[in-house]
Design a protein that fits this description.
single chain; alpha/beta; six-stranded antiparallel β-sheet; five-stranded parallel β-sheet; 9 helices; 18 strands; globular
Length: 357
């Protein structure tokens, strides 16, 4: 009778594992561990400080009540790169924070340019820029940050109203430089009030349409959109009535995408009233359905911090002590929303929220 040379079973009657395959299995597991990088001790991500201390190198009058400010470092060092649609958060000497679009040349790494229209009845930021900031003044800024990026498209229709030309101008120049199909419609109260007309005059005059209201009247959305080519992307920045008109006329236009940036927060159309308790101020306020918590709180606490009023900068982030929040911001992470809210856009779902103010 021939001897059985097969591997004998273990004490439980199971076949013993083949040693060669066992060694190969361990080797494969080790290679997978090495290739995954799991053996590397990873450092936690480091927060990038985007704060820059800049100097005003030049102030220019660009139109009635509109000035541009060229910003540089004290030693004329290179600045962080940016793309059309980017903006800076500017911290003014008073402590106010305001967001201004970059409207210069992205290829110029030694300077930034912003433009500001003076608003007599505004919240004070534009008046401070015009009345207090001059050549040689120092400004602390953060950024650049892009909340209005220019994406690839079959063609472009750019629509700007007044100082809304600031984010649009670099977009138009880039589209022209790369040979894209584009058109620009630029409106304003009058030619004297419209910044950068001289720079636009250097572009293709068949593509640039300047429509001051005192000559042509206030255009409808359909009129603004009539030059959109089939499948074009619309990029629009201007006053609220312009945005509303373009939004209304978009569905019947040839355009395929609508991108816009607002001067101020969007009107609240779906809010419900709620109460907000300010714990440190020992006050309880009622927020109407058509107002933001920030608007109501500012009446009681004028020095409450805010900036963009659109939920993308985080300046008005406030700790929530109790209550259910309806988050409408574009800046807080899921973890941050557990205990914080941006009072410029976020609301309570009804009832009461308590804030650390």
């Amino acid at each position: 009778m021939d001897a059985d040379h097969s591997v004998p079973p273990d004490l439980r009657g199971r076949p013993r594992p083949d040693r060669m395959f066992g060694v190969l299995g361990k080797l494969i597991t080790s290679l997978e561990w090495i290739s995954s990088g799991a053996y590397i001790r990873r450092r936690p991500p480091r927060q990038v400080d985007r704060t820059l201390n800049l100097v005003v190198d030049e102030v220019r009058i660009e139109a009635d009540d509109a000035r541009s400010f060229r910003l540089v470092t004290a030693d004329r060092a290179e600045l962080p790169p940016w793309q059309p649609g980017s903006h800076l958060e500017v911290r003014l000497p008073s402590g106010r924070r305001r967001h201004y679009s970059l409207c210069g040349d992205p290829a110029d790494r030694r300077s930034y340019r912003i433009a500001v229209r003076r608003l007599a009845n505004g919240n004070g930021g534009s008046r401070e820029m015009h009345d207090s900031i001059q050549q040689g003044s120092g400004l602390t800024v953060r950024g650049p940050r892009n909340a209005f990026p220019l994406a690839g498209a079959a063609g472009y229709l750019f629509i700007a109203g007044g100082i809304g030309i600031t984010p649009i101008l670099p977009m138009v120049k880039l589209a022209a430089a790369v040979g894209a199909q584009w058109q620009l419609v630029y409106t304003g109260r009058s030619r004297a009030s419209m910044p950068f007309l001289d720079e636009l005059s250097a572009l293709d005059p068949d593509r640039v349409r300047v429509r001051p209201y005192d000559q042509y009247g206030f255009p409808s959305g359909a009129e603004l959109l009539e030059h959109a080519t089939q499948g074009a992307a619309v990029y629009c920045c201007g006053p609220a009535p312009m945005l509303a008109g373009v939004r209304e006329g978009f569905a019947t236009s040839a355009a395929a995408a609508f991108n816009f940036e607002r001067f101020t927060a969007a009107p609240i159309v779906d809010g419900v009233p709620f109460e907000v308790a300010l714990e440190r101020s020992n006050r309880v306020l009622t927020v109407p359905a058509d107002q933001s918590a920030l608007e109501v709180i500012r009446d009681a606490v004028p020095d409450v911090a805010f900036s963009c009023q659109q939920g993308f900068c985080g300046t008005c982030r406030t700790r929530v002590l109790s209550g259910e929040v309806e988050h409408r911001d574009r800046v807080l992470t899921h973890a941050e929303r557990v205990e914080s809210m941006t009072i410029c856009v976020s609301r309570s779902r009804g009832g009461r929220i308590a804030l650390d103010i």
